[in-house]
Amino acid sequence: MLSYPNIRHLAFLVALAEQRHFRKAAEVCNVSQSTLSAGIAELESLLGVRIAERDRRSVMVTPDGLRIVEQARRVLHETEQLLGLGEAAGNPLSGRIELGCIPSVGPFLLPRFLPFVRQHLPDLVFGLREDKTPALIERLADGRLDLVLMAFPYDIGPFETEMLFDDPFRFVCPVDHPLASLDAVEPRQLVGEEMMFMERENCLHRHALPVFATWPTLADAAYSATSLHMLTAMVGEGLGSTLLPELAVLGGLLSDHKVAAVRLADGVNRRTIGLVWRRQSPRAAGFRAVADLIRRWVAGQKGNDSRGLRAIGARDAEAPHRIT
């Protein structure tokens, strides 16, 4: 009779591939180093393949081992899906959800929104991870995340998507800037304005650029930033102006900085915030409940108005939001 690897073997292997260190992998799996080492050796014996090469400092997974690791991830993911079917059948609005979010959304939404979730869905617990969009989508695809909170437009591929709310951009400038006291900025008033943006790899850079497709040519910026906090501080020091999302402005990003936020007169320059999950997830009903809660929370925010964040209804959420 054939002997098969078990789920524990596969979990040990994936942890070792990610940590590249036996002690660290053992800590992740909550076992002793000797137990993990014996499990890897047993897996190598069962498969007849050398999976890892060891030295005193680190572990290198062999090319054959890397292919086995990818298959192991898929098996573990399918096992989690199997367990999730039972959990979802009992109560899709309970348990732990691994949620990923981008840096321009998470810090400004989650600290204020999660208490609202706790009030309405007390049996739901979130594990949080902040990262750039490509890394989050990769983790979603291989099962390390259940749900991703991100900005659109973005071509995410074969995933389920619920659009939550529109997040318009604000023109942000030093408080002593000639445009700082206006209610709204007209396109003609930005001629020659020196603008600063996030680095090109950041999705906020890509979302802000279309604002200028029909607006006047601006002066080339001498600076770019790797974080919204750095970008705001640079504006406060008079190094230029920028565009920031309304969500970040309402979330307190401008506090302690000598800057002003002015809305854009055309009212159409915005990004859209949405939730993404795997189409086959058995917890889809729970994810949609979270999406509805976010819409309700956005609609009830003080300081927001019809020109600010706008919750998207279910009918709007079904529309495609992709870059063509």
How would you characterize the overall build of this protein?
This protein has 324 residues and is an alpha/beta fold. The protein has two domains: 7-86, Arc Repressor Mutant, subunit A (Orthogonal Bundle); 95-324, D-Maltodextrin-Binding Protein, domain 2 (3-Layer(aba) Sandwich), CATH 3.40.190.290. Helices cover 40% and strands 21% of the residues. It has eleven helices and 13 strands. The protein has helices spanning 7-19, 22-29, 33-47, 63-90, 106-120, 133-141, 203-208, 228-236, 246-250, 284-299, 314-317, and strands at 52-54, 59-61, 95-101, 124-130, 147-152, 159-174, 184-185, 197-198, 224-225, 242-245, 259-264, 270-278, 310-311. Strands 3, 4, 5, 6, 7, 10, 11, 12 and 13 form a nine-stranded mixed sheet that branches. The chain has a two-stranded antiparallel sheet with strand order 1-2. A two-stranded parallel sheet has the order 8-9. Strand 1 (52-54) and strand 2 form a beta hairpin. The longest helix has 28 residues, at 63-90. The radius of gyration is 24 Å and the shape is elongated. The chain starts with 6 loop residues before the first helix and ends in a 7-residue tail after the last helix. Mean pLDDT is 81; it is low at 314-324. Belongs to the LysR transcriptional regulatory family. GO terms for molecular function: DNA binding; DNA-binding transcription factor activity. Keywords: DNA-binding, Transcription, Transcription regulation. It holds the Pfam family LysR_substrate. This is HTH lysR-type domain-containing protein.
